[in-house]
Design brief:
With 65 residues, the chain is an all-alpha fold. It has a single domain (2-62), classed as Helix Hairpins. Helices cover 80% and strands 0% of the residues. It has three helices and no strands. The chain has helices spanning 4-8, 12-35, 42-64. Helix 2 (12-35) runs antiparallel to helix 3 (42-64). The radius of gyration is 13 Å and the shape is elongated. The N and C termini lie far apart (27 Å).
Length: 65
Amino acid sequence: MTKIADLRSQTTDQLSDELLKLKKEQFNLRFQAATGQMEKTHRVGEVRKDIARISTLLREQRAAS
């Protein structure tokens, strides 16, 4: 889980890269769940919330500029 304070100190490019990485992880987790290979089921919720946090920060930064 990512702390919001850590995310706020990152640039827009860094946040976009992190968002892309999390979306890929989310896809892989969904694929694992569909094939019955998932071990860390709690990670799905964590990734979803991290994606939401980063999306919110990116939206805030766009509104501020």
